[in-house]
Every structure is written in structure tokens, then in C-alpha cells.
Design brief:
The chain is an alpha/beta fold. The protein has a domain of 124 residues: NAD(P)-binding Rossmann-like Domain (Rossmann fold), CATH 3.40.50. It is 38% helix and 18% strand. It has a seven-stranded parallel β-sheet with strand order 3-2-1-4-7-8-11, sandwiched between helices. Helix 1 crosses helix 6. The structure holds NADP nicotinamide-adenine-dinucleotide phosphate. NADP nicotinamide-adenine-dinucleotide phosphate (NAP) binds next to strand 2 and strand 5.
């Protein structure tokens, strides 16, 4: 069996690759990237291509049985401009099964897959534990407190390795055709829970200072964040949907093992905060 992983150099795709290798070391893996020099595990074939330019993808799909898809192109997560053409290429190459990483904007890729004969499973992870790397690592390393709004928010946040583990199991064994799988961690975590776990992992107290929404908007804008992203973050953090703060049990149901905790994630990544 040969599996193509798109977004393979990203925080989720990298874990899809690792979990596929762990589950079935004999499976043939091909990673789609725009960068020929991408750093991927040994034995993973690299296919250079751009999801925004379907004419660059023909070789990537050749001989592939299953695909893990991202639904965006570019670093701002814009929806795929020619999703129908991408799915048509996959279908023509004989792809039988797909998983799709759900994101902020969904639409064209998902619709094209629903219309195709490709067995598709829609993965809907909630907030990634790994966001702490992007949002907090530099500030914590410099010894500054974390300043954010919504100090009372709750999240059933998920370890990216568990998103990878669910995707890997579905890609290899199927069984979830047409289903949407909401993927969460094993517990609902508060802001104080996060800082307790990170402080314990890093070995010193990390301070949290709650900002008003207006103060946060000023900070985000001063750091170059666009209006769209500010609106998205305000809604996602300030008005988290029930789904984002409810444990789904998908990881255990699909993989047979419990979902990883934030404490575990914090210990694994402590060096990035020291
Ligand atoms: N962060 C969260 O809490 C959260 C929660 C739920 C859902 N999500 C969703 O997760 C997705 C982001 O996943 P991630 O964090 O794994 O991404 P990421 O770490 O930002 O990596 C982006 C990946 O997309 C690839 N890529 C981007 N444009 C491409 C293009 N035109 N053609 C081919 N590949 C392209 C990149 O590949 P190369 O650079 O190697 O070409 C890279 O592997 C978004 O849809 C987001 O909405 C995020």
C-alpha cells in the first residue's frame, strides 16, 4: 500500500507520517511538499508539488492508494483554489481512500471528495496543544509573563500525535467512510491547568496576566496580526464552541489507546520553553 501525505512537513502531517511508520513500517509513504529539501523521516519519498497548482501534482498521485489531505494552500490557510481538479487527479490515479484535516474554512475540497468515489473521512481536531510553541515559547524563554485575554476559557485540546494516530489508523484500515471524527484530548483543560503543567515541565513558575479583549487586540495588531486573524482568534478563544470543550473519545475509539494529556505534551516539549 502506498500513502500520500499532504501537509507532511506541518505540525499535523509530520505526525501522520510518524504514526503511519509506527503502525505499519512496511507501508510506502510519499510526502507532498513545495520544498525538495524538506526534512522528513528516512524512507519517506518526497514529491514536490503545490496544491494550489494541480498541474504540479500528477506524479505525486501516481500509484497511490490513500491520501491524507490538507484543505488549504499557502501559509495563511487560504482554501484550495482548484479543489475539483485536485480530487479529479486523485480519482484518475486510482486513489481509494482519503482523510481530510478540517480547518478554519471548509468547502470545495470536502465537496469534491463527497462527490467522488473516494472513501473519505473528515478529521475535525479541536485546539492543538502545540499552539503553545507558536504562541508562548519565545515569551516564556525570555522570562516574561504570558499576556492574553479569556483567562477563564476551557479547551479539550488535542496532542498532534493523536490526530496523526487517528489519521494513520483510518488511512491503513478504513472503516469510517463519510464520517466526521471530532478529535480531542482526554480532558477539558483550563488556563491555570496549562500553566501548572508547563511550569512543572519547565521547572519554574510561569506567570499569566489576563488582558482585556481590547488590550489583546492592540497587542495582536502591533505584532502584525491581520484583522481577519484577530476576528477569528477572538471568536475561537472567547466563544469556543461546545465541541471545542467537550471530550469526544475518538482517539481511544479509533486507535484503542487513551488520548495523550497536556502534561505529557508539556514534558515532551519542555526544552522549547527553557
Ligand atoms: N492550530 C489549531 O489549533 C488548529 C485546530 C484545528 C484545526 N486546525 C487546522 O489545521 C491546519 C493547519 O495544519 P498544520 O498546523 O499541520 O499546518 P502547518 O504546521 O502550518 O503546516 C502547513 C503545511 O501545509 C503545507 N502547504 C501549505 N501550502 C501548501 C501548498 N500550496 N501546496 C502543498 N502543501 C502546502 C506545508 O507544506 P510545505 O511548506 O512543506 O510545502 C506544510 O506542510 C489548518 O487547516 C488549521 O485551520 C488548526
Amino acid at each position: 500500500m502506498r500513502i500520500l501525505i499532504t501537509g507532511a512537513t506541518g505540525s499535523v502531517g509530520r505526525n501522520v507520517v510518524e504514526q503511519l511508520i509506527a503502525l505499519d513500517p512496511a507501508v510506502e509513504l510519499r510526502a507532498l511538499t513545495r520544498n525538495l529539501a524538506a526534512d522528513l523521516p528516512e524512507g519517506v519519498e518526497i514529491a514536490v508539488g503545490d496544491l494550489a497548482e494541480p498541474q504540479t501534482l500528477a506524479e505525486a498521485f501516481t500509484g497511490v492508494d490513500a491520501v491524507h489531505f490538507i484543505n488549504f494552500a499557502g501559509d495563511q490557510y487560504a482554501p484550495l483554489p482548484e479543489a475539483d481538479a485536485v480530487v479529479a487527479l486523485a480519482e484518475a490515479a486510482g486513489v481509494r481512500r482519503a482523510t481530510v484535516l478540517g480547518g478554519r474554512d471548509e468547502g470545495a475540497l470536502e465537496q469534491a471528495l463527497v462527490k467522488s468515489p473516494i472513501e473519505t473521512t473528515f478529521l475535525h481536531p479541536v485546539e492543538f496543544m502545540s499552539n503553545a510553541l507558536m504562541w508562548w515559547a519565545e515569551t516564556i524563554k525570555s522570562g516574561q509573563p504570558i499576556r492574553e485575554p479569556f483567562g477563564d476559557r476551557l479547551s479539550a485540546m488535542v496532542h498532534p500525535a493523536d490526530i496523526g494516530a487517528v489519521a494513520a489508523k483510518v488511512l491503513l484500515d478504513g472503516g469510517y467512510d463519510g464520517q466526521e471524527l471530532v478529535i480531542t484530548g482526554p480532558e477539558v483543560v483550563s488556563i491555570p491547568d496549562r500553566f501548572r503543567a508547563l511550569s512543572a515541565a519547565v521547572g519554574r513558575e510561569i506567570e499569566f496576566v489576563e488582558l482585556t479583549v481590547e488590550e489583546a487586540h492592540e497587542n495582536w495588531a502591533a505584532n502584525g496580526m491581520g484583522e481577519d486573524m484577530i476576528a477569528f482568534l477572538t471568536e475561537a478563544l472567547g466563544n469556543t464552541p461546545e465541541e471545542g470543550k467537550t471530550v469526544s473519545g475518538t482517539v481511544e475509539a479509533v486507535t484503542g489507546r487513551p488520548a495523550r494529556t497536556f502534561e505529557q505534551w508539556a514534558v515532551e516539549h519542555a526544552d522549547a520553553f527553557r
